[in-house]
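Why does residue order matter? Because the sequence determines the fold. Keep that principle in mind as you read this record.
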Amino acid sequence: MSILIVTHSEDNDCVAQVVGAIARKGGHAVRFDTDRYPTDVRLTAYYGASGDERLTLTNEAGEFDLREVTSIWHRRLNIGAQLPAGLDRQLRHASLGEASAAAHGMLASLKAFRMDHLRHIRHAENKQLQLQVAREFGLHTPRTLTTNDPTAVRAFAKSCEGGMVTKMLSSFAIYDKGKELVVFTNPVKPEDLEDLSGLSLCPATFQELLPKLLEIRVTVVGNRVMSAAVDSQVSARATHDWRRDGLRMLQDWQPYQLPHEIEEKILRLMDYFSLNYGAIDIILTPDNRHVFLELNPSGEFFWLERTPGLPISEAIADLLLAAEGRG
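Structure:
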């Protein structure tokens, strides 16, 4: 069995963990570092008039016949990231466009199982839709407002008796002198509501502040639901977002058993989006409610394999080698 892993050269060690699990189970993984295409990695797609074709990927490990690929793991994309910095802007734009079209066209032509189809991943990334569907399936969700209207924000803040936080719908970082500054979930103070003119440049998302007993990370692979929890409230920095003190808390995660009915609702959510993999964030409130926050269709999991030792790589390898699932 040949598995194609679509990623980039700066990805974390979860890729190596899955590659190792695939090898232990008798499979073979081919890594496509998309940031090294077209500068270092070579792709060739030939479609002949008489039906013959050649689909190959060549990297430092050798040349691989992609027609032999049985499963594809769409992990990360960063096509053309290593193009020369001094390349003319118009030429760079053209190169990125052609490289993206060539890579996506080649991947689309492979007759293989996907974890997951890129179109399903992109559809599932819509956070407003996630909340809507989760609520329809009976999961608790926080009251949420996304807007660029200051009046709506102030009215929503008044309705949130326990306070309000703001968060981003998209994942990005701000860079200051080369240092990556991640945008976390932040509480909204009364003085923050005085000047909301920035909303005319960028909409924002606001949620009611809910008390937390635990923060839960649910990793779904196929029909396997694996959960871990951490008490983020022991750290003042992590009160509103455990990632603020994430490095220190990596060893604090513990196995957690979700109620069966919650697991069933999560699997229904995965069915709706035709996803085989998902990382889901949930909070447990002091009154024992499990509140769905968001679904990350390509979310991270590497730290959960270290502590508390969830067998996520093994589950991913099993699914890819079985070459069957949703979608």
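The chain has a mean pLDDT of 93.
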